[in-house]
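SEVERITY: medium
COMPONENT: batch folding queue
REPORTER: lab tech (J.R.)

DESCRIPTION
The queue accepted two submissions in a row. Attaching both inputs and their returned structure tokens so the on-call engineer can compare them side by side.

ATTACHMENT 1
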Amino acid sequence: MEQQDWASGLSRSIAAEVRRHRRAKGMSAQALADRCAELGITSLPRSVIANLENGRRGNVTFAEVLVLAAALDVPPAVLAFPVGYAEKVEYLPGQDGPPLDALDWFEGAGRDDDDALGLLRQHRDLEQRIRGHYRRIWDWAKHGEPDGVEAQAAREVAEELTAQLREVRAEIRARGLVLPPSAGLDVDAE
């Protein structure tokens, strides 16, 4: 498919998904336009949404996709890649595949942990896992078992994960990337 045909097809797909999600939520085009305006974009009045959904408006900007997705309370990528509603999507000119694969590509899922996105995802994952272990320890302590075998094992795992998080934070710093806040975890103490 040529680039212009591909872009038009993508816009039509986005429009169809906007309509699908709007209807599934029982929203009128006016309610969607009002919600978009509340989110700060006034270039999507009811008439524009109706024209988009009916194919009379042939394009939609990335900014509009983001606001429409927020207004519909769906991830932006599902407007472009209708997971569960299409067998294949053309995610780039001449390149098609299952919508879930396209969505994964769009969000960078499965990438090597060696780039900025991978490092920051690894950082977030480690923080979540550490908090989960400390939550379990706290629950055991509330129930009078702060020194049980499970609590001690959870402490050891949390300490090991904290050491890994320190290494990831050091790598983020070394690469000159923006370091996420430590969110209450004692990870910056060496």
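ATTACHMENT 2
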Amino acid sequence: MKIKAQGVSEVVLEVSDMKRAVDFWSGQLGFPVVQQWGYQDNQFTEEASEIWATWLYVGGPTRLGLWLPRNFNNQQLVEKASPVSLWNGLFDEGGVHVHLALYIGIDQIEAAIHLLESHHIDNKIITRGIHKRVYFKDTENNVIELYTQSMEEDYLSRLTPM
């Protein structure tokens, strides 16, 4: 038996400047903001005066989170380091994310490249056969990739017994 995942639900990138990150991801790349949260008293809230987390819809079943860093106290750090089943709170902030790849249809990749170039976003294009990979960095130096190959198509064909 295996977990039958149907894709990625969410990916979170840590950012140091929320306005700059939202301007990049939504303003320049065009992903719509769907929700924003604050963070007060170690709790997420939609009532906060300062935005701590922004969710953008990136397509399919997937949302992208842009989160400011959290400062855990010593007790929280000890608890966070313990087995998950022993947690009293929720520590959903993991390690440093360094790469995110988004699937872009072959028929949409040239428009995506044009968008990057129109915003003077440095990028590198790698073409292999009919597929393209476009690499660039976001405002936090995370390496972002736009990739025309569907992992569903590729991996399902590899997993099909012959």
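NOTES FROM REPORTER
The two ends are 20 Å apart (CA to CA).
No errors were logged for either attachment.
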